[in-house]
Amino acid sequence: MFKTLALAATAAAALAAPALAEPYKVGIAAEPYPPFYSPDASGNWSGWEIDFADALCAEIEADCVITPVAWDGIIPALNTGKIDMIVASMSITEERAKQIAFSDKYYDTPTGVIALKDSKVQPTPEGVDGAYLGVSVGTIHETYARAHFAETAADIRSYPTVDEELQDLAAGRIDAVVGDMLALMPFLESDAGAACCEYRGAVESDPSILGHGVGVGLRKEDSELLDRVNSGIAAIRANGTYEALSEPYFEGLDIYGS
Questions:
Q1: For the domain with range 111-209, which CATH number is right: 3.40.190.10, 2.30.40.10, 3.10.450.50, 3.90.105.10?
Q2: Which band of pLDDT confidence, cut at 50, 70 and 90, is reported for residue 251?
Q3: Which range is the signal sequence, renumbered to this chain (predicted)?
């Protein structure tokens, strides 16, 4: 009888105990985006944004798991609960803010143009007259190029990944690429990039398209998590963690911006 009562008590205690919290699923784009995130041969992801997400989750005392999602479906994945936050170089724009909430920015970077050395491309509508431009599909850079350069460029070609557009640039199949300069600089510093191409400057600002920096994307109803994430970003900025994790990737460069 005592054994039965003990078992019953144990079972009741187990039912009464709170379930362990599920880890937050941190969504990144499944398409590699070095130096921010890319997988190795075993499928393990690394990069600056992976390190940032790890530091942020540690600061807010949350268990997190990196969850790759196709870029064009990443906002629906957030809003349907397949992921819990987006840490994928997503710029804070008015259009996106209609669908999701954003944290304070955690980095900012200019949108610029790199071009073949023997081209005359410049980062203006007149400067791309007759040029073939490459952009990454579904990005603010594609939106910007189509809004500002479509009338003068010969063609604007959309690519699934940055690597593919840079391969076409190096091969001379396009004249220039419009994109995030932090993502494009490693190519310019490579042997292939230095041989073919050069930086032609930043495009004219258009905050309605290019946004106000990059933020963590969250569901609108997750206001408590939003507050924790904002506090976490501020804390790792203040305690030196942000600078320490950024230095190996962007030596001497302030990627947070003004």
A1: 3.40.190.10
A2: confident
A3: 1-21
Q: What are the sequence ranges of the domains in the chain?
A: 24-108+212-250, 111-209
- The CATH number assigned to the domain with range 24-108+212-250 reads 3.40.190.10
- The pLDDT assigned to 14 comes to 41
Q: How is 6-61 classified by DSSP, letter by letter?
A: HHHHHHHHHHHSPPPPPPEEEEEESS-BTTTBEE-TTS-EESHHHHHHHHHHHHTT
pLDDT at residue 257 in the model: 80
Instruction: Name residue 222's amino acid.
Output: D
The bridge status of strand 101-107 relative to strand 214-218 is antiparallel
Query: What is this structure's pTM?
Result: 0.78
User: Do 145 and 169 meet the contact criterion of CB atoms below 8 Å apart?
Assistant: no
